[in-house]
Amino acid sequence: MRKIAYSLFFLFLFSCTPTPEMTPGEVAVRLFTAITSGDSETVKSNIYISDSIQRYVFESTIDIAVASKQYKENTAGYVPSYKVEKEVVDDDRAEVILTGVGPLGQKLRITVKLLLMDGVWKVDGDHGVWH
């Protein structure tokens, strides 16, 4: 009986521990795909910026950028395809290296820092995402 009680306790304990629904690499790919696809809502929901004014400015800038004629011209016909080259997770922080080809045909290597926030990985917008 005691073993059953311990088993139920550990089952309950582990079932209450939040587990991220997406890996850091999946979140990084999702964010950069959204940036180059014009999906500003996905960008906003997958990035963490602690300062409310900086977050507002960033979100406004993303909205303006994806609505611009230049953005539409630069991304016309572009199909994003980012690949996770490396993913390092250290407790509630992660670093992901993405590679791919940008909308203008340039080869990209992007280092993305992420934070685990309430059980969900978010790109760390406080420390930059462009490298």
Overall average pLDDT: 85
Number of strands: 5
Helical content (DSSP H or I, runs of 4+): 40-55%
Broad shape: globular
Instruction: Summarize the main sheet.
Output: 5 strands, mixed
User: What separation lies between the terminal Cα atoms?
Assistant: 57 Å
Give a short summary of the structure.
This protein is an alpha+beta fold and 131 residues long.
Features:
131 residues, alpha+beta, five-stranded mixed sheet, 5 helices, 5 strands, 44% helix, globular, disordered N terminus
Overall description:
- This protein has about 130 residues and is of the alpha+beta class.
- Helix content is about 45%, strand content about 25%.
- It has five helices and five strands.
- A five-stranded mixed beta sheet has the order 1-5-4-3-2.
- β3 and β4 form a beta hairpin.
- The longest helix is centred in the middle third of the chain and has 16 residues.
- The protein is globular, with a radius of gyration of 18 Å.
